[in-house]
Specification:
With about 80 residues, this protein is α+β, with helices and mostly antiparallel strands. The chain has a domain of about 60 residues: YefM-like domain (YefM-like fold, 3-Layer(aba) Sandwich). It has 4 helices and 3 strands. Strands 1-2-3 form a 3-stranded mixed beta sheet. The longest helix is centred in the first third of the chain and has 9 residues.
């Protein structure tokens, strides 16, 4: 996997896109910190690979709704202080 800065990507975009079209994956950095990844469109994502290997399963149903919030008549900080005493 190749790592390049934003300026290098901008200055040589055609060259880097050609490399990606040839199968390379490029990590784009901003001041040395990775911020994006450019990969060929026909390569499965890491999640797709994990699903195919049976390591990860896709959820079967819709996401559950969050429970209603609990309303307390006392501040949480008071409860914590009392618990620590």
């Amino acid at each position: 996997m190749t790592s390049i800065g934003i300026r290098e990507l901008r200055d040589n975009l055609s060259k880097h896109i050609a490399a990606v079209a040839g199968g390379a994956t490029i990590t784009v950095t901003d001041h040395g910190r990775p911020v994006a990844r450019i990969s060929p469109i026909d390569v499965p994502s890491q999640l797709d690979q994990l699903v195919a290997e049976g390591i990860v399963t896709v959820p079967r149903g819709p996401k559950r709704t969050a429970p209603d919030p609990i309303v307390a008549d006392v501040a949480l900080s008071k409860i914590v202080r009392a618990d620590r005493a």
